[in-house]
Design goal:
With 261 residues, the protein is of the alpha/beta class. 48% of the residues lie in helices and 10% in strands. The protein has 11 helices and 6 strands. The N and C termini lie far apart (56 Å).
């Protein structure tokens, strides 16, 4: 069980606290007010969060062969969380750069869901490098985006994510490592990787946190679609939405029937 899997009940509780209304309720309706994104508000809100308008998502080596070596997180959960990042990027128009290490060898091809749900993703393959940041084309692709906040996930966390994360941090980028959209051969490897991230100033995070930080407010036109993404990172919340919607429908039918009499 991964570090973040152990914290899943708490994450679900947080999601429930944030999402007490159905995504079909009036609170999720489109607003005429401009979306604030992750800008800092007069209250100081957002000062410690990443700015989605300044972010690029880097999905590193999510390959079928490497998935078979992952032991610190369930692979289905890893893939689902990666899909959420791809969908979030498309919804909020966040750039995505992908890469793969020897896709024609035992590491295997990239999971096809990334391109399916983030068709705008740019692919920059390795040229034999273990570290994507050793690839000039990859670094150039990052620089071209003009973004200074890098949100990284990949397989293995201890190599494919950590090496470019450390180099990007040294190059002046603000770097987040999405641990539950990444995987390693063992729980021990994952723990030592997170420790090294923290020592270097790379910020370990989760898909639920990335979604919530990018989301920031329900007063935005994408609110209903964002609500659906929470069910990907917290499947139990999907059941909460369904049960709430059903209860709301029954209540409306009861009220309508009573008024008709």
């Amino acid at each position: 069980m991964s570090v973040f899997s152990k914290l899943l009940p708490g994450a679900v509780a947080t999601a429930l606290a944030l999402l007490v209304l159905s995504p079909t309720s009036s609170a999720f309706a489109q607003s005429d007010r401009p979306t604030q994104g992750a800008s800092v508000l007069p209250t100081g809100g957002g000062a410690a969060l990443f700015d989605a308008s300044d972010a690029v998502i880097l999905l590193l080596d999510h390959q079928s062969g490497l998935f078979q070596t992952v032991k610190d997180i369930d692979v289905a959960e890893l893939r689902s969380n990666t899909v959420m990042l791809a969908k979030l990027a498309t919804l909020l128009k966040i750039p995505v750069i992908t890469t793969a290490s020897e896709p024609n060898g035992p590491n295997g091809p990239l999971m096809p869901e990334i391109q399916q749900f983030a068709p705008h993703a740019i692919y920059v393959g390795h040229k034999g490098e273990v570290n994507a940041w050793d690839n000039e084309d990859f670094v150039k692709a990052v620089r071209v985006t003009g973004k200074k906040t890098l949100i990284m996930a990949g397989v293995w966390t201890s190599v494919c994510v950590m090496f470019p994360a450390l180099d990007a941090k040294a190059a002046g980028y603000k770097v987040y490592a999405v641990i539950d959209a990444s995987g390693d051969p063992s729980e021990m490897t994952s723990r030592t990787t997170v420790a090294r991230f923290i020592q270097a100033g790379v910020i370990p995070t989760s898909t639920n946190a990335v979604l919530s930080e990018a989301h920031r407010t329900w007063n935005r036109p994408e609110a209903a679609e964002l609500a659906k993404l929470y069910a990907l990172v917290a499947p139990n919340y999907g059941a909460v939405i369904e049960s709430y919607q059903r209860a709301s429908d029954v209540a409306k039918q009861t009220t309508t029937g009573a008024a008709a009499k």
